[in-house]
Give the backbone structure.
Amino acid sequence: MERLLQSVKIAINEKIYVKDPESSDLGKRIIKESILMINEMGFESFTFKKLGSRINSNESSIYRYFENKHKLLLYLTSWYWGWLEYQLVFETNSISDAKNKLSRSIEIITRKTKEDSAFSHINEVLLNKIVINEYSKSYLTTEVDEENKEGYFVIYKRLVNRISLAIQKVNPAYLYPSSLASTVVEGALHQHFLKEHFASITDCTKEVTPSEYFINLVFNTLNQNFNG
Amino acid sequence: MERLLQSVKIAINEKIYVKDPESSDLGKRIIKESILMINEMGFESFTFKKLGSRINSNESSIYRYFENKHKLLLYLTSWYWGWLEYQLVFETNSISDAKNKLSRSIEIITRKTKEDSAFSHINEVLLNKIVINEYSKSYLTTEVDEENKEGYFVIYKRLVNRISLAIQKVNPAYLYPSSLASTVVEGALHQHFLKEHFASITDCTKEVTPSEYFINLVFNTLNQNFNG
DNA sequence: GAATCATAATAGTAATACTATTATTTTTGC
DNA sequence: GCAAAAATAATAGTATTACTATTATGATTC
């Protein structure tokens, strides 16, 4: 997808970082290479020391951007959800028909990620894999409630709410629009994971996409639930 | 729930432990107290050293039961899924009507856990909370594929497959029974989590249960998908 | 009563996740 | 072009983790 507005920057809660990684070359290298490394070795094995030596910088310099690797993960995943939200709004803005709009919305959040040349230091395809494999670790912590209060998850929640609103537009009588929206967003990550690792408990394959499954699920549910 | 068969033991893959914790008093204390501690401090902060001092034992003694805390988590969560499966089979075995059986099945896997006095050293209510907060960490690792080959996740997958089969019985024409089953099992944990921490993106509350939402979701989907 | 087994105690290691301090390099403002 | 400021790098150090290894002690059993 082409980014028509050249000056668009995904806005991340400033409390997540110590220094904005977008503000320097080192910062961008931290983002770029951390995406590659977390993909290669997984989040638990990834350390700031390893990242430092990979980018020919120093552990201590990375700490000037992020307090710890958990905050870096929050940054990366927030960026991803912000980027997805941008695509969602951009691609569905002009659709007036509620059903078409919802269908397209589900497609966007459940599809396999394609590269976006607009943000040169970020590989969205790999970032999507990180979100699939690591996102839940960012909120399954003892500090969730504090961090939620600080607003670390606003972008994600806003995205889910957009889907919820699109659901309500299609069927105002449906009782569980937010639960259905959160099920689709989280469930999409899960189905992509199952496809790769637990194929026996999913019907998603190379031929059958999570998008098909979820569009079928949502519309059939909403059709049945008309008028209560 | 009463355990009618007094000799029932939840069978866990033997590769998960070094020595069966059910085989000794120390082993049972390890299980009992680790459940309490993981609930109190979360899985990342929990260590074998802390557990040792809590049960008046030694770190090194715990290593004679479990290779590491990841394996202990696999043990605890496998036990939970095995226990749930036992309840599922037991409570739905005699139901002949496919719809009733599926409805009851969904109820069982999505409901809030009640204590089961049958296994005295295991607090199922707290174990359920551990599963909600930590289960995905047990498979979101770089070793999933190896561990899956070793059979560490069989109980979970078997449970999902049981739901999938119940779905197929209700509507043989439905195209995504496994995806729907895995969505319900994983989604139930997620909705319970959202209820506690991200209330704005769920409709589940004290009054509205995840069971209601999922039963509505599954049956409406299956009704629409009859005959193709 | 000796042998075996389980548990406990102690010590040690490499790595992690930092903090602190100082040194060097780069940028900028005049 | 130079001084001051800011950014980065280097070095060292700490508490904790996640173990392994060895030995000692206590309990069980043949």
